[in-house]
Amino acid sequence: MCSFDAIVDKYGIKDQAVCARAKIVRAADTDRMAAVPEAAGLEAVMTGISIVSKDDHEAIEKAGPVYDAFYTNCKLKLIREKYMAEIEKMDRSKRREF
User: Fold this and answer.
1) How many angstroms separate the CA atoms of 20 and 17, rounded?
2) Contacts by 82-85, CB closer than 8 A, 24 or more apart
3) What would the pLDDT profile of 61-78 be if each residue is shown by its tens digit?
């Protein structure tokens, strides 16, 4: 468990994309990069942000879009899983519109 897990638990968050993102954050925060492929990328980006930021406030501001991007990617994966059969029937341009 990590602090992100505590937040998800405390507020009873059930959003599947948030829960998927929590797995990435947990793997990165607990040094278990092999558990989730994206964890190593998150850890690398967050380490870089912490180095180039003057303080925690700036680091948090810079990290927001990173966590938003991971959330969006998790949401996209869930959508792809749910609509896989329909998506496979579409040509490339229709997939992008979808």
Assistant:
1) 5
2) none
3) 999 999 999 999 999 999
